[in-house]
């Protein structure tokens, strides 16, 4: 294998902004934000809109996520 071609695999915190749910896992994703975790260490933070805590398949609740006004644009365009 070639040396120095793989991204850094590290611990990262993902935060579901719609359900206010955070979890610690490992990833190679790059991010600029950081957050302090319960163990007192600072980890990179990735904000996501959907996780198992907010997805309708797992929660059993239907929910319309309107990010950037997509639903409203659709209704205006097609007159609903």
Task: Walk me through what this model shows.
With 80 residues, this protein is an alpha+beta fold. It has one domain (10-78). It is 16% helix and 31% strand. It contains two helices and four strands, in the order ββββαα. It has helices at 56-59, 70-78, and strands at 10-16, 21-27, 33-36, 42-48. It has a four-stranded mixed β-sheet, with no helix packed on it. Strand 1 (10-16) and strand 2 form a beta hairpin.
Structure in a nutshell:
It comes from Methyloradius palustris. This protein is an alpha+beta fold and 80 residues long.
Short descriptors:
2 helices; structural constituent of ribosome; single chain; alpha+beta; 80 residues; Large ribosomal subunit protein bL31B; four-stranded mixed sheet
Could you outline the blueprint of secondary structure elements for this entry?
Layout (H helix, E strand, L loop, with lengths): L9 E7 L4 E7 L5 E4 L5 E7 L7 H4 L10 H9 L2
Mean pLDDT rating = 83
Q: What is the N-to-C succession of helices and strands?
A: EEEEHH
Secondary-structure-based class equals alpha+beta
Strand adjacency order, main sheet: 2-1-4-3
Q: Catalogue the unreliable spans.
A: none
Strand content: 25-35%
Sheet with most strands: 4 strands, mixed
**How many distinct helices?**
2
Q: What's the helical proportion of residues?
A: 10-25%
- Span between termini: 56 Å
Shape: extended
> In the residues, how many domains can be counted?
1
Radius of gyration: 18 Å
By DSSP, the count of extended strands is 4
